[in-house]
Write a structure and sequence with these properties.
- Helices cover about 40% and strands about 15% of the residues.
- It has about 350 residues and is an alpha/beta fold.
- It has a single domain, classed as Alpha-Beta Barrel (TIM Barrel).
- An 8-stranded parallel barrel has the order 1-2-3-4-7-8-9-12, surrounded by 5 helices. A 4-stranded antiparallel β-sheet has the order 5-6-11-10.
- Helix 4 crosses helix 6 and helix 11 packs parallel to helix 12.
- The longest helix is centred in the middle third of the chain and has 22 residues.
- The chain is globular and about 50 Å long.
Amino acid sequence: MSNLSRRDCLLATAGLLAAAGAPSNARAGKTPPSGGRSIKLCEVFGPGQQDRLRLARQIGLNYAIAGVTGALSRVRREQYAETIGKIKSEFDAAGLKIAGVESHPVPAEKIKLGSEGRDQEIENYKAAIDALARNGITMICYNFMAGLGWYRTKVDAPERGGALTSEFDNREAIKQGPTEWGAVGEEKIWSNIEYFLRAVMPVAEKAGVKMALHPDDPPISPLRGIGRILTSAKNYRRVMDIVPSPVNGVAFCQANFKAMGEDIETLAREWCGKKKIFFVHFRDIEGKGERFRETFHDNGPTDMARMLKIYWDSGFDGPMRPDHAPTMEGESNKNPGYAMMGKVLAFGYMKGIMDGLRIPYE
């Protein structure tokens, strides 16, 4: 069945289940009674986004990824655990369990650039890892994009029906010239990440907190003068070899690995099999690293049903969220990629596939 198209796969499987009269307790969306593994569907939210937390529950989510950087940046290290506890209580009250945090738990720009003050940021980072573990939060999705985070040259490109999506064209990025940080070579970034990993990874391993490293987005180097290193599977293997640890792993943003030109099916099988994928960003693009655009989850070129089956068959049972969706009619585009209507569509699409393929999720 994995060789069928997405549409054929869903229709055929739905028909088989209906013909077999599958009992209601066999629904993939229900957690297995034995406590067996399942994929944890989730979305990222910050503290105080009560309307979005309610919407998440209304569409059937039980898990969330929290953004805590802003909250922790305003308090002393001694207050980290208490602050995270309050955020956790807010999410608990909404009916959502925090499956991890994303975008660094504390500010980390000096760490990534290797500038003065990075040791202070590293000490903050260690304290944040401990505070997260004390609150039962055991996954950090972090990145090492110095100076520039995820970056696009256009955020209002037309998608299906006039929806707005983002795109990247390196020719346009080159026209914008270097950033305020000037030229930063790849070897400098490699030196900085090694310094960080050797300081932080032993703390994470002791605390039982998985460090899921997100790819550079876009995965090209240099980007406006700044070297980027998370641009290939080869470089990821190098990172994991710097400090070998069961908690040194990957946030598998599949569209980024596709933009690198990697075989995402083979790579997902390999790293899931090695228990190195801690978190999946489920999204699609048209194009490659030098030029690409975001698509809806149901109209891109990747066989998304096949990818979900590969994750499951290869042993993945962690958190997964649909990253970057177009902005739809009636929504503000002030935060491109993170409006909610496209995410609602994505979750329905993912649940339909997973129900059809009997992939357990919760």
